[in-house]
Amino acid sequence: MNLTPNVPFPPTDREHGPRLQCGYGTDRGLRREANEDSFIAADPVFAVADGMGGHEAGEVASSICVRTLAELPQLKTGSRDASADILQEYLFKADADIREATGSRAGTTLSGVVVVEQLDVPYWLVLNIGDSRTYRYSGGQLAQLSVDHSEVQELFDAGQITEAEAAVYPRRHVVTRALGTGDDTEADYWLLPLEDGDRILVCSDGLNGELSDEQIAGILGAEADPQAAVDELIQAALRSGGRDNITAIVVDARTTPGAAAA
């Protein structure tokens, strides 16, 4: 279930606030029988949900999550006044609907950004539950904004394994928080200033599981067009093995008056 504009995402034309341009794409990968990823890319919401459960239950979970986010009033009004409290209400609803639809047999991650404005100052409201990821590429540097809810992340944070050990840890894909599982369904939120020239990448772990941060940064720096960047990221992940579903959204922001989103 993917919710996007009916036409290629144009730069947003607003009298005030940042102008955005977006690219997006998804691929089943080379080893999966179905694509259980879903995403939404519609100003001001850009998010990826990675379903888990098998037998198409994961696809149901991620689809419900994305459809629930699509009910946000900000998508209808075009306003940028969402908050963490508002988003969490919708995530609680998605969690309940997923459990009812799948009998608690499936779950989904969710990661992404919502563009918000406070006193006419723009921000990225980053949200995350699970191990899908949100990155910011700015000034030639790539930074992971979200923090994984995973067994391997907890071990790394506790100093029990090194970064090199984490990369090959056998249970590195086991998540500790998700929607629909009946466990902890509270997302983490960060409010970060939106700066001119920011490039946001939101992806499922089928992308970052195949590509290093250096590879991701290289592609984001080389491809000026956000759709071209998405296409190359997905192709690079497929060339690297494509062992999982792969989904990516790239959002470019411009705040300088008269500038177009790159």
The rounded Rg comes to: 17 Å
Spans of at least 5 consecutive residues whose pLDDT stays below 50 are none
Q: How many domains?
A: 1
Q: Approximately what portion of the residues adopt beta-strand conformation?
A: 25-35%
CATH class: Alpha Beta
Largest pleated sheet:
7 strands, mixed
Q: Report the average pLDDT across residues.
A: 91
Instruction: Please state the second-level CATH architecture.
Output: 4-Layer Sandwich
Describe this protein's structure.
By secondary structure, the chain is an alpha+beta fold. The chain is 30% helix and 29% strand. The chain has a single domain (2-9, 25-254), classed as Phosphatase 2c, domain 1. The protein has eight helices and twelve strands. The radius of gyration is 17 Å and the shape is globular.
